[in-house]
Design a protein that fits this description.
196 residues; mainly alpha; Lysozyme
C-alpha cells in the first residue's frame, strides 16, 4: 500500500507540472506580445510626421534624418511637449526662434502657441536649424556647432569656439564645458545615423 500511495503521488505531481508549464508559456507569450506592441507603438509615433519632415527637408535643404533626430531628442515625437524654459512642441521652439521663422516667411498674426501645430513646428524648427548650420561654413563639420547653438545658444558656442576650435569640431567639443550639450550632440548624431 505505501508503494501505491507513492505511485499516486508521482502521477499527481506529473499532472500538475504540465499545467504550470502551460501557464509559464502563456505568461511568456503575453510578455513578448506586450513588448512587440510597445515597439510597434513607438515606431508609429516616429513615423507619424514623416511626410511633414520630408516637406521641411526639401524646402530648407536640411537632411531628413537630422530633422527627425532633433525631434526625437527634443520631444520624443510628443507634439504637446513643453520645456522648462517655454520651449514648445516637437522641436521645442523658443518664442524668438518661432518668430524668426514667421517673420522670414511673412506669417501674419503669428503667436508662439501656433507651434503646437506639428506642421508649423517642424517647418519653423527646420528653418531655425538651417540658419544654425549656415552660421558655421568654415568649420570642418558644422553640425556640432549648429547643434550646440540649437541647444545652448550662440553665446556659449562663441565661448567654446576659440582659436583653432573655430574650425576644428573636435577641439570645439573638447572646449565644451556643458556635459549636457555634449551629450545632446552625441545623441542627435547617433540617432541621425540610425535614421539614415
Amino acid at each position: 500500500m505505501p508503494r501505491q500511495c507513492l505511485w499516486q503521488r508521482l502521477l499527481t505531481v506529473r499532472r500538475r507540472r504540465p499545467k504550470r508549464r502551460w501557464l509559464r508559456w502563456l505568461l511568456l507569450l503575453i510578455v513578448i506580445d506586450a513588448a512587440a506592441y510597445y515597439w510597434w507603438w513607438n515606431n508609429q509615433a516616429e513615423r507619424r510626421y514623416n511626410g511633414i519632415i520630408r516637406d521641411a527637408a526639401t524646402e530648407f535643404g536640411v537632411e531628413y534624418a537630422l530633422i527627425k533626430a532633433v525631434i526625437w531628442q527634443e520631444s520624443r515625437f510628443d507634439e504637446k511637449a513643453v520645456g522648462q524654459a517655454g520651449e514648445i512642441g516637437l522641436m521645442q521652439l523658443m518664442e524668438l526662434a518661432a518668430f524668426e521663422w514667421a517673420d522670414e516667411h511673412g506669417v501674419r498674426d503669428f503667436e508662439h502657441t501656433h507651434v503646437y501645430d506639428p506642421r508649423t513646428n517642424i517647418l519653423a524648427g527646420t528653418y531655425y536649424l538651417k540658419t544654425r548650420l549656415a552660421r558655421y561654413p568654415r568649420a570642418d563639420d558644422p553640425l556640432p556647432y549648429a547643434l550646440a547653438d540649437y541647444n545652448a545658444g550662440r553665446a556659449h558656442v562663441l565661448r567654446w569656439a576659440k582659436d583653432a576650435a573655430r574650425t576644428n569640431s573636435a577641439l570645439f567639443m573638447q572646449n565644451m564645458d556643458y556635459p549636457g550639450t555634449r551629450r545632446y550632440i552625441n545623441q542627435v548624431t547617433q540617432r541621425r545615423d540610425h535614421y539614415r
